[in-house]
Amino acid sequence: MEKWGWIYMRVSGVVLVVLIFGHLFVNLMLGEGIHALDFAFVAGKYATPFWQWWDVLMLWLALIHGANGMRTVVNDYVGHQGIRKTLVVVIGLAAALLILLGTLVVFTFDPCNGVFQDGAMWATCHPGS
Ligand code: HEM
C-alpha cells in the first residue's frame, strides 16, 4: 500500500511539472502575457473542454499529491496515535472537499451567473435584449 503512495508521488510529480509549467507559460507568457489576465480570459478558458480537463487534472493530481505528502509528514512526526489519526482524516476530508468544489466550479462555471441589468456583461449575456 505505501509502495503505491511512493510511486504516486513520483508519477504525479512528473505530470505536475508539465501541467504547472504549461499553465504558467500559457497564462503569463503567451500573447499579451500577464496583461491579458482578466475575468474574460478565465471565462474563455473555462468554456474550452481542453482547459477544463487540464485544470481539473492539475487540481486532482496536486491535491492528492499534497494531501498524501502531508499524510507522510504527519505519520513521520506526530507521536500521539489519536492526534495522528485525526489529522490524517482531516487532511483527507479537506482534500476531498476541495476536489469536489473545484471540479464543480470548473465544469459548471457560467460567466453570466449573477449578471444584473446595469452590469458590464449584460449585453453579452442577453444579446438582443
Ligand atoms: C511541480 C511539480 C512537483 C513535483 C515534481 C513534486 C515532487 C515530489 C516528490 C518526489 C515528493 C516525495 C518526496 C519524498 O518522498 O521524500 C513530494 C512530496 C511532497 N509534495 Fe510535491 N511535487 C510537486 C508539486 C507539489 C505541489 C503542487 C504540492 C502541493 C499541493 C506538493 C506538496 C508536497 C508535499 C506536502 C510533499 C511531502 C513532503 C515530504 O515528503 O517531505 N508538491 N513532491
Automatic annotation (TrEMBL):
Entry-linked SUPFAM superfamilies: Fumarate reductase respiratory complex transmembrane subunits
Major localization listed first in the record, in broad terms: membrane
Ranges that cross the membrane: 7-30, 50-67, 87-109
Annotated protein name in UniProt: Succinate dehydrogenase
Keywords, in A-Z order: Heme, Iron, Membrane, Metal-binding, Transmembrane, Transmembrane helix
One Pfam family named in its UniProt record: Sdh_cyt
Compartments where found: Membrane
Species of the source: Microbacterium panaciterrae
